[in-house]
C-alpha cells in the first residue's frame, strides 16, 4: 500500500480528513493555551474525541506525557523518581529544587535547607514565551523578587557546556552547545541576572553569559550514561520524540539532567528526517499484525482507556496501534519556541 503524508487541520472536521493511521504532532503551544482559552480547549477536545473513536490511530507522542513535560514541577518529580532507581557514584542526578506555588514567608528558610547559591529560577510552565525567561539569584535578599509559581534550582557549574540529547525512537543524537559560565559557589553580593535561555544555548549564541575563560577539559557524558537517561525517560513517558539537556558537574564529574522537552527543534541533527521516517515505518510495520489480531478481540482499546479529562490536568497547562500512511498535525498559528 502506498504511503501518504499530509497536514491535519484541527479547525476542521477530522473524520472528513481521515482516516489516519498515525499522527505526528507538536501541540505544546496549543496544550498550554487550552488551560485558559476556550477555542484552544475545543481544538484539543476535537483531537481527543477523534482518538477515542479511532483507537487504532497512533499518536506521536501521547498527550498525557506532554502535560508532564509542560509542568516543571511534574518534570522534576519524574527526574527524581528516575534518580532513585539508579545506583552508584556515576549515576545521573537532578539538581536540588524548591517549588514555589505562591509567595511564602519561609522561602529563605526553604532555600537554606535545600539549595545552595547561586540559584536559577524558572517559571513553572515549561513552554511559551515566559518559559525561557529565567534568572540567576546570588543571595537571600534577592529571593524577594521571584514570581511564583516557579522552580528554584541550585545552579551547577558545568564549564559553560550543554549536551543536548535528541531522541528519535530507538536512535539518539548528542549535540554540544554553549551554556552559562561558571560562578563562585556560595552566597555573594552580585545582583540578580535576568536572561533568556534560548539566547544562551543556541548553537550561534554569543551571550555574555556563555562567554567565559578557557575551562579545563571536561569529559562529555559517556554513551552508557546517555543510554541510561534516554531509556529511563522513554519507559516513564512512553515518548519517542523528545530532547534532554545534560550537563557535567565541574566539581564531581557527574552528569545532571536539567531539562526534558517534547519534540524539540533537532537543530544540528542532519540525520533527523531519515531517522524519523525509519521510526514511523517501524511502528507501522510492527503494529500491522497486532492490529489485525486485536480488531476481532475484546482487547481493542476503549475510549475510557485513553480518555483525558482536561479538568484533571495541572493548572498551568489546563496514546498506539497501526497502518501504512502517516500524517503531521497542522494547528492555527502559535509561537514555536523549541
TrEMBL record:
Keyword Lipid metabolism: no
Binding, 1D-myo-inositol 1,3,4,6-tetrakisphosphate: 179
Amino acids binding Mg(2+) 2: 259, 261
Cofactor mode of binding and number, as noted: Binds 2 magnesium ions per subunit.
Residues holding ATP: 72, 122, 153-164
Chain residues that bind 1D-myo-inositol 1,3,4-trisphosphate: 26, 132, 164, 261, 265
EC number: 2.7.1.134
Molecular function, one GO term: ATP binding
Every ATP-grasp domain range: 85-289
TM regions (residue ranges): none
GO CC annotations on file: cytoplasm
Keywords associated with the record: ATP-binding, Kinase, Magnesium, Metal-binding, Nucleotide-binding, Transferase
Catalyzed reaction equations: 1D-myo-inositol 1,3,4-trisphosphate + ATP = 1D-myo-inositol 1,3,4,5-tetrakisphosphate + ADP + H(+); 1D-myo-inositol 3,4,6-trisphosphate + ATP = 1D-myo-inositol 1,3,4,6-tetrakisphosphate + ADP + H(+); 1D-myo-inositol 1,3,4-trisphosphate + 1D-myo-inositol 1,3,4,5,6-pentakisphosphate = 1D-myo-inositol 3,4,5,6-tetrakisphosphate + 1D-myo-inositol 1,3,4,6-tetrakisphosphate; 1D-myo-inositol 1,3,4-trisphosphate + 1D-myo-inositol 1,3,4,5,6-pentakisphosphate = 1D-myo-inositol 3,4,5,6-tetrakisphosphate + 1D-myo-inositol 1,3,4,5-tetrakisphosphate
Chain residues that bind Mg(2+) 1: 245, 259
GO BP, sorted A to Z: inositol trisphosphate metabolic process
Assembly with partners or alone: Monomer.
Protein function: Kinase that can phosphorylate various inositol polyphosphate such as Ins(3,4,5,6)P4 or Ins(1,3,4)P3.
Family: Belongs to the ITPK1 family.
Name of this protein: Inositol-tetrakisphosphate 1-kinase
Species of provenance: Eleutherodactylus coqui (Puerto Rican coqui)
Amino acid at each position: 500500500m502506498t504511503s501518504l503524508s499530509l497536514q491535519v487541520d484541527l479547525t476542521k472536521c477530522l473524520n472528513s480528513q481521515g482516516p489516519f493511521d498515525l499522527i505526528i504532532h507538536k501541540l505544546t503551544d496549543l496544550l498550554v493555551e487550552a488551560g485558559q482559552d476556550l477555542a484552544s480547549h475545543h481544538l484539543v477536545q476535537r483531537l481527543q474525541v477523534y482518538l477515542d473513536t479511532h483507537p487504532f490511530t497512533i499518536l506521536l507522542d501521547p498527550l498525557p506525557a506532554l502535560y508532564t513535560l509542560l509542568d516543571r514541577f511534574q518534570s522534576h518529580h519524574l527526574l527524581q523518581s528516575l534518580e532513585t532507581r539508579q545506583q552508584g557514584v556515576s549515576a545521573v542526578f537532578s539538581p536540588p529544587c524548591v517549588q514555589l506555588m505562591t509567595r511564602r514567608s519561609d522561602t529563605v528558610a526553604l532555600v537554606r535547607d535545600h539549595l545552595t547559591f547561586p540559584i536559577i529560577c524558572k517559571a513553572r510552565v515549561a513552554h511559551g514565551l515566559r518559559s525561557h525567561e529565567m534568572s540567576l539569584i546570588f543571595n537571600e535578599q534577592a529571593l524577594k523578587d521571584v514570581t511564583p509559581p516557579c522552580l528554584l534550582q541550585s545552579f551547577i557549574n558545568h564549564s559553560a557546556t550543554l549536551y543536548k540529547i535528541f531522541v528519535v525512537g530507538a536512535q539518539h543524537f548528542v549535540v554540544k552547545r554553549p551554556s552559562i559560565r561558571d560562578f563562585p559557589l556560595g552566597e555573594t553580593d552580585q545582583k540578580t541576572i535576568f536572561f533568556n535561555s534560548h539566547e544562551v544555548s543556541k548553537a550561534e549564541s554569543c551571550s555574555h553569559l556563555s562567554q567565559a575563560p578557557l575551562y579545563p577539559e571536561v569529559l562529555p557524558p559517556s554513551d552508557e550514561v546517555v543510554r541510561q537517561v534516554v531509556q529511563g525517560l522513554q519507559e516513564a513517558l512512553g515518548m519517542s520524540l523528545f530532547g534532554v539537556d545534560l550537563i557535567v558537574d565541574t566539581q564531581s564529574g557527574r552528569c545532571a539532567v536539567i531539562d526534558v522537552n517534547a519534540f524539540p527543534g533537532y537543530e544540528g541533527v542532519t540525520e533527523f528526517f531519515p531517522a524519523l521516517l525509519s521510526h514511523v515505518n517501524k511502528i507501522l510495520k510492527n503494529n500491522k499484525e497486532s492490529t489485525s489480531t486485536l480488531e476481532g478481540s475484546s482487547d481493542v482499546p476503549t475510549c475510557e482507556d485513553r480518555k483525558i479529562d482536561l479538568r484533571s490536568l495541572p493548572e498551568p497547562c489546563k496514546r498506539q496501534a497501526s497502518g501504512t500512511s502517516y500524517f503531521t498535525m497542522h494547528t492555527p498559528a502559535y509561537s514555536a519556541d523549541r
